[in-house]
Design a protein that fits this description.
globular, single chain, Glutaconate Coenzyme A-transferase, alpha/beta
């Protein structure tokens, strides 16, 4: 069995350079690779194209990279929680490609499966479809979307083993699952890293063949974007 374990986040992110395209898992702040994002800030890589559901918040997640002007382009489906993102987009400092959320997920999954492109009805008749091939299927118009091409994919999982097999917890599975194996190199950041054979094969969500590097993260904050609780009676 090939051992995919690396000893640190620094070792895991070796090879990431300026001008690269990087996928980052998570939904809002749920299931984001916190240690890897912090390391990208330290590496001071710039002109990155980031593919992620959103851009985090001002002082956490991808918002940390935005603060340092390390991202030149964001490909996302929702960006409403980040004031700095809004400022950079409106000022022209940041290039933004908004994508319907289901299309974003499918563009990741298509890359993961080796499918170069697919047709979807989402976005037809809107700015999303401008400049793209369209075709009618069963009386309904569809837009041709191409799979993502990324240099690195960074995902976060609850548990993993040294062969790269991953288990996600609850909704933190989100975009992490379709992004695993969707780039040239996939890095998995996990809360608990176990020896091969420790995971129940029936519970594994992503097989190790999708992962090239895996490491155990530390000191996860697991912030909540908007904490909403009901008032006590």
């Amino acid at each position: 069995m090939i051992n995919k374990k690396v000893n640190s986040v620094t070792e895991a992110l070796q090879g990431i350079e300026d001008n690269m395209t990087i996928m980052l898992g998570g939904f809002g702040l749920c299931g984001i690779p916190e240690n890897s994002i912090a390391e990208l800030v330290k590496k001071e890589v710039t002109n990155l194209t980031c593919i992620s559901n959103n851009a985090g918040v001002d002082d956490f997640g991808l918002g940390l990279l935005l603060q340092k002007k390390q991202i030149k382009k964001m490909i996302s489906s929702y960006v409403g929680e980040n004031a700095e993102f809004e400022r950079q987009m409106l000022s022209g400092e940041l290039e933004v490609e908004l994508t319907p959320q289901g299309t974003l997920a499918e563009k990741c999954r298509a890359a993961q499966a080796g499918i170069p492109a697919f047709f979807t009805p989402a976005g037809y008749g809107t700015e999303v479809a401008e400049g793209k091939e369209t075709r009618e299927f069963n009386g309904k118009m569809h837009v041709l979307e191409h799979a993502f091409k990324a240099d690195f994919s960074i995902v976060k999982a609850w548990k993993g083993d040294e062969a790269g097999n991953l288990i996600f917890k609850g909704t933190a599975r989100n975009f992490n699952a379709p992004m695993a194996g969707a780039a040239k190199i996939t890095i998995a950041e996990v809360e608990e890293l176990l020896p091969v054979g420790s995971l129940d094969p029936n519970q594994i969500h992503i097989p190790g063949i999708m992962i090239q590097r895996i490491f155990q993260g530390e000191k996860f904050e697991k912030r909540i974007e908007q904490r909403t609780v009901r008032q006590r009676n």
